[in-house]
Amino acid sequence: MIDPRMNKLADVLVGYSTKVQPGDKVLIDASGIPSEMVSVLIKRVVEAGGLPFAEVHDAKISRTLVMNTTEEQAKILCRRDLDFMKEMQCYIALRGGYNVTEMSDVPDEKMKILQKQMRPVLDYRVEHTRWVVLRWPTSSMAQLAGMSTEQFEDFYFDVCTLDYAKMSEAEKPLKERMERADRVKIVGPLDTDIEFSIKGIPAVQCDGDRNIPDGELFTAPVRDSVNGVMHFNAGTIYQGKPFDDIRLVFKDGKIVEATGSDTKALNDILDTDEGSRYIGEFSLGFNPHIKRAMRDILFDEKIDGSIHFTPGRCYEEADNGNHSKIHWDMVLIQTEDYGGGQIYFDDELIRKNGRFVPDYLQVLNPENLA
After folding, report:
1. Pick from 172, 158, 145, 171: which is nearest to 296 by CA?
2. Which of 29, 142, 191, 258 has the fewest beta carbons under 10 Å from its own?
3. Where are the extended beta strands (E) located within 198-265?
4. What is the pLDDT of residues 168-192, one digit of tens each?
């Protein structure tokens, strides 16, 4: 029996996020997802007049392949996937699985081979298709969130089927203010105290048409303008490895010191290439249903009252000239429960302890978005 919430979610993904039109070819990329949800999506694409394609993956098999990958193998995979992606107008990715650290023991050199060779596929998908990516609720995610499985499923569907059209309208005043701003100053828990410029770089609304769940607005710092300390209070997983207590020190845009729960692995990743020690994204998160970190970046980067600061590649829509093979969203939560903090645009207090302060931004506080 199909959970009716699957149909509602499929309506969001097909009708709102990717806006499938008659004749569109749509790739449904599923890993660890119930077959019923994949079937619901296929049918919903057909109802919209699209032509559905589905690829279904198993995390354990994917791990074995990556553990044994070679440059030649990755190049062949890239050619195949890039040719196929160029046929698509839309891309819907659903990622599940019961072990979020399944890739944690894959050697760095193997991950780098795959990332290097598959980068053209990712770039084409991001730049040339209407795409959306989301996680699927599992018991392991519920455990990370500190919830029962049933409680987490209810939370998940509330978050993922939010009224994103309403959110889109609410984001417009913040977009306008960010695009007028020059200097940004962030003070936060621990020893966070950092300044940078966002002058001349577009601000981009995220309101359900790329990620589900959604609820952020991002730009990028002027590449060489970042100075100070950013000390993150949300744990993260990158390349299958967990990291906590990441602290970055910046001088003229570059990360000159990086420490954390695994300082060596952290610096190995930040040494991937020249751009990986510069920031490619700065974003404010404000999804009213997401209140705490759970080591899943698609949720954590949308936490109400959070920001994320991203070593690595910038997005084309907010291009600051930084290019890299990595893009690592790191999250700082500034609500009172997490130590508070302030964000200033050109000396105007924009947010304090996770709540927007100016009257024209009150629409983004949780009681007005939920």
Report:
1. 145
2. 191
3. 204-206, 211-212, 216-219, 227-231, 236-238, 241-243, 247-251, 254-259
4. 999 999 999 999 999 999 999 889 9
Arithmetic mean of pLDDT over the chain: 93
Q: How far apart are CA 133 and CA 155, in angstroms?
A: 18
The pLDDT of residue 79 is above 90: yes
Q: What are phi and psi of 38, to 5 degrees?
A: -60, -45
Interval 205-256: pLDDT, tens = 999 888 888 999 999 999 999 999 999 999 999 988 899 999 999 999 999 9
DSSP string, 273-308: SGGGGSEEEEEEE-BTT--S--S-HHHHTTBTTEEE
Show the domains of the chain with their CATH numbers.
4-160 (3.40.1830.10), 164-369 (no CATH)
Nearest to 307 by CA among 269, 268, 342, 348: 342
Residues 286/369, Cβ–Cβ less than 8 Å: yes
**Total residues found in the chain within this entry:** 370
Task: Note if the pTM is more than 0.70.
Answer: yes
Residue 100 has pLDDT above 80, yes or no: no
According to the model, what pLDDT value does residue 58 have? 87
Instruction: Specify which residues 92 forms β-bridges with.
Output: 28, 132
Report the C-alpha gap between 82 and 262 in whole angstroms.
34
Tell me the CA distances in angstroms from 62 to 31, 53, 66, 185, one per residue in order: 10, 20, 6, 42
> Please, how many CA atoms are within 13 Å of residue 84, restricted to the half-sphere of its CB?
17
Collapsing DSSP to helix, strand or coil, 40 comes out as helix
Q: Which helix (H) or strand (E) holds 343?
A: strand 342-345
Cis peptide before 213 (omega within 30 of 0): yes
Instruction: Compute φ and ψ for 368, nearest 5 degrees.
Output: -95, -15
Distance CA 92, CA 190 (A): 38
Mean pLDDT, range 318-336, rounded to an integer: 96
| Residue 165 C-beta-side C-alpha neighbours within 13 Å | 3
Neighbours of 62 (CB within 10 A): 17
Going by their DSSP bridges, the two strands 211-212 and 342-345 should be labelled as unpaired
What is the rounded distance in angstroms from the CA atom of residue 320 to the CA atom of residue 184?
15
